[in-house]
Amino acid sequence: MKRRSSKVIRRRRERDICKSHEPLQEIPFDLVIDILTRLPPKSIMRFKSVSKLWSSLICSKYFSNRFREVSSPRPRLFMWLGIDNKNVLLSSSSSPDLDVSTMSSLVVDQDLTIPTMEGYSVSQVFHGLMCFTNGKSALIYNTATRQHVVLPAIEESIILGANDMSKSMFCIGYDSVHDQYKVFCTVSKRGERVGNLVIWVSEHWVFVLGGGDVSSRWRNIPSSCLPHRPLTQFNTININGRMLYYLARAHLPKCVLVSFDMISEEISVPQLPEDLVLWSRLPILYEILEWDGRVAFLYHPHLENDGDDPENEGNVFDNEGVMKVWVMEDAEKNQWSSKTLVLPPYQMKIFNIPMVVNLSLKPRGTTGKGEVILVPRNIRYCRRTRNIIIGPQETNHFYIFLYSLQKNHMRKVEITKSSSRYLTTKWDVIGLDDVENLMYL
């Protein structure tokens, strides 16, 4: 009897549901957008296949701006590994709970490698956008959406069209007034020689990212700036997205500092401090970096391991931990400040690394707390050319140093691979970025 009554009740419920003609209430589209902006980028990309409307929304500038406003900073460390003459691009997982100021280790577990990047070198990561360069060609890669685009050639360039020895430098920045991500490019070549000095010829170009417009072209930036050639593709910094700074060779015996304003698109040559001398023909021991929203220079000696000390078993660097930093206090008035920092002996012990004889430290940006990211580099002497060559580390031990200029404190952060398939000894760190960008390229 009880079994029969339960069946009757179930049938009544099914009948009542079928008779119900009350339509389901649709979720307001504004609420849908709000929900989507709180999802991880990987999940959002999957929702593009729901409908044309959703795909159009997710690819729009409106949605990418909403996502950037809502999402909290998620620091990620980017690095590459050299495996079988190919580069593998890795990053740590993004997490709003990661406290960079206290972390002692990081796990790189995200493989961002794409086939198109073969032959290119990574020069910069900014707001989730990565810039790859290969000679005169540049590729922009969105690390969140995995979308990439090879920028068109600068067809109107006089230098590129007439000189195979020309050099191109690319850098990403952000124009907050017009809400545009731009790629700035300096093209240069060697000109006439006057005595012992070389006269350089240079052009400057800007490309606006976004929209997927195949008709987009490079736009020339007229400038009365001193003609110059950037030192390297990797010696550039970005201040708050707006100001780009890089070192360059001019007709002067010393290097000059060049700046580019992403909003006004003006190029200038700020004056360097008198006691900061950068000779263009000598190895540069002064590293340009961004610190506390300002351009700065950091001097540090190379660390040489004293292998003749039997008591220390060759594991103690005999250099004093003396560093000097110059900071631009006022860009308009061209005012600089400087201070000398000395690491205490107990801090120098963190540089004691097995199998590393000579060590150089390369700045790769700063953290949100103002700590300078220092990446270890190998130093070796080439007998054939009699030059000092500084290159990537070649050990199975991955790590970086974080240096606080305010506290004069250095600490070591271990980097752990999540997979044993990355058997490599050649590696380098690109930098730290805390923005996930859904911008459609």
Protein described:
By secondary structure, the protein is mainly β. It has seven helices and 28 strands. The chain has helices spanning 2-19, 29-36, 41-46, 52-58, 61-70, 158-162, 345-348; strands at 76-83, 86-92, 105-111, 121-126, 129-134, 137-142, 148-150, 167-175, 180-194, 197-208, 219-220, 229-230, 236-239, 243-249, 256-261, 267-268, 286-291, 294-299, 303-304, 322-330, 335-342, 358-366, 371-382, 387-391, 393-394, 398-404, 409-417, 426-433. The strands form five sheets. Strands 1, 2, 3, 19, 22, 23, 24, 25, 26, 27 and 28 form an eleven-stranded mixed β-sheet that branches. Strands 12, 13, 14, 15 and 16 form a five-stranded antiparallel β-sheet that branches. The longest helix has 18 residues, at 2-19. The chain is globular and about 105 Å long. Mean pLDDT is 81; it is low at 307-318.
> Strand percentage, roughly?
35-45%
Number of helices: 7
* C-alpha end-to-end distance: 68 Å
Number of strands: 28
**Estimated radius of gyration:** 26 Å
What number is the mean pLDDT?
A: 81
